[in-house]
Structures are given as structure tokens and as C-alpha cells.
Design brief:
Blueprint lengths: L1 H6 L5 E3 L7 H18 L8 E3 L8 H15 L5 H8 L10 E6 L4 E5 L8 H12 L7 E4 L5
Length: about 150
Amino acid sequence: ASEIEQRGLGLAVVLNKVDLVDKETRNEAETKAAVYLHERFPGLGRFPVIIGSAKKGEGVAALREAVRDLDRLRKKRIPAEVLAEISSPWPTSGRPWVVRQTGIEPPSFMANPPQGNRLSSRFVINQLRESFGMHGVPIEVRWRKVKK
């Protein structure tokens, strides 16, 4: 997962052998596996976790859809006015945040926080991820250097 994040790729995890799990415990097992994986690799948000069976061909359609979604998210462009709207409620000490997208594949952003307000990159990434559903893809945030 770390290498995937460093290379700017998307991540979906497929858990095989669901045919060996009885139907009553299948949903519980899927939920537990997803929670475990998301906690273990938080840098990519709530990436898709798909359960399937190679033997029975289960999960193939879900995987195909997840790959299409991840590719779309890696290429997502967000207009400046939308970024201004979602960043307006962020903590500020006067001047508003300025956030602009600088690239895709992976989505990259430049953040210019209000003077003296340097929240972590993780805060900005989490806000962008939740606002735009960008789970499963890395998001890069750089800080704009303010001239003194």
C-alpha cells in the first residue's frame, strides 16, 4: 500500500475464497476485513475492499467497477470555485484559505493557509477526500511558501 501511494496509483483489495465462508458470517467478515485494512493503511482513505471467489467468479464485476472508479478519481479535476467553497469553513485567522489543484494522476493541490494557520497536510487531505469521495487514491498537498 505504501508503494502504491508513493507511485500515485489507486488501491482496491480483493479478498478471495469467499466461497469458503458461510453466508451468515460473510457480511460480518467483509466488514471486519475492511475496518482492519482501512486502519492499517489510512493514507488512502476507505479504499474499496471486495470479497470474491476466483473459483466461482464472484466479485469480478465489483472489481471492474472499482478499477474504473479509481481511474476516474485519479483524473478528477476540481474547479477553483468549488475548492474555495469547501475550504471556506476551515479554521482561519482572518484571511481565507486558498486551495488550487495543480495536477492529476494523482490529484495534487497547493494550499495557501491564512497567516499563522498551518494545519497539517493530513487535515487538508482528509477534507478533500471526504468532500469529493476520493477514497482509494493518494492525494498530494503542498504548502505555498509565503514571501516575508
